[in-house]
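Q: Convert this sequence to structure tokens.
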Amino acid sequence: MTAVYPTDSLLLAVQGPVFAPGDAGYAEEVAGFNVAHRPAAALVVGATSSADVAAAVRYARATGKRVAVQATGHGLTEELFDTVLVSTRRMDRVSIDPLNRRATVGAGVRWSAVIEAAAPHGLAPLNGSSSHVGVVGYTTGGGLGPMARRYGFAADHVRRFTIVTADGRVRDIDENATGEDGDLFWAVRGGKGNFGIVTELEFDLVPVAGFFGGAVIFPGEAAGAVLHAWRAWAPTLPEETTTSVALLNLPPDPRLPEPLRGRSVVAQRFTHLGAGGADLLAPMRAVAEPLMDTVADLPYAAIDAVHMDPTDPMPGWDRGCALAELTAETADTVLAHAVDSPLAMIEIRLLGGAIARRPEVPNAVSGRDAAFGVFTVGVLAGPQPHLVPAASAALVEALRPWAAAGGLVNFLGQASPDRVGSLWSAADRARLRTIAATVDPDRTFATNVVLG
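A:
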């Protein structure tokens, strides 16, 4: 008699491939952007549809395993032992409805694909600083990008999604949903992956074909002058302008422009929609002699030029916080922690504008009341990689006197469940936990953003 192994039923139930450790293709499926983490999932399902995702969830439940999901690998920070990993990168359909200014995308789509598909219609999505990032994970964490002060969070513009919950059901939920589905529509838009696996997303596009923006990069010696000028200048800007300033320690990478290789620099990022951008930026351009100035009128397809985020996988560590104010003393504290820092980046983003406004259909996005967001990134490589987590933690702790209530999920970094839960008000935190306990009482889904 032929033995029937547990995976047999799964292989018959899904259209996509299934990989076990040691199989050809397994390593590629589990690999993420952050190579500091090496997932060792018990099984990987290369999902091609919502039905495949549902079958994977049912299989995991039947065999006592947890479920994780990965599209681009930017958010995966666990090793996933005894876990079924659902890889959604094959779910890459993008559909644009130019008449209604909407996009519908599969769970594996990156922002670059949406930008490319929307551009011929004079439309743009509310993507983040890097178009290399996946749409779904970014949006379920709120989604704060280079047009955020004008249009708000990406999650504010979601109209519908398809989600597979822990019971293996495929649910189509839209902005008119009520009851449990209405709770999910609120929670998923801002509460990350605590409620299920989103397999399709429909959201509004905005009528933007181009922008005035880029980066003005100053030498590290000008950091004090630039940061103090920026903190006074940024709050005076109109909502059409989104900006940040970043203290960067750059590697001697030949792919970088020659003036920047191996240097400490200050990058002032700038995105302006409409006329008058050059006049608004003029005071900051005059603070010091820049090493590079890439700010110009650009098509929206060139939006990555603002932040110039890396696209190659690396071993990274990130952590952030939100600020209620950015005083001279706050700026001096940041500057003090930047001296001889092992961190690759300390960035401060101006919030406010449309970011602070609640959408017509409420959602669970946190951090709206903050004035600034701080985000640190370090590379866990070199002779003393252990210094990176301590340096980021020390900066966040030093900024506590100016901290805002709550914070931004996607910029929180590695955090305990209690710290994750503290991002929301007591009422919203309680509501999120209740919804999660209702739809996933056994905590089937393994996510690095765990509600405490």
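The longest helix spans residues 426-439.
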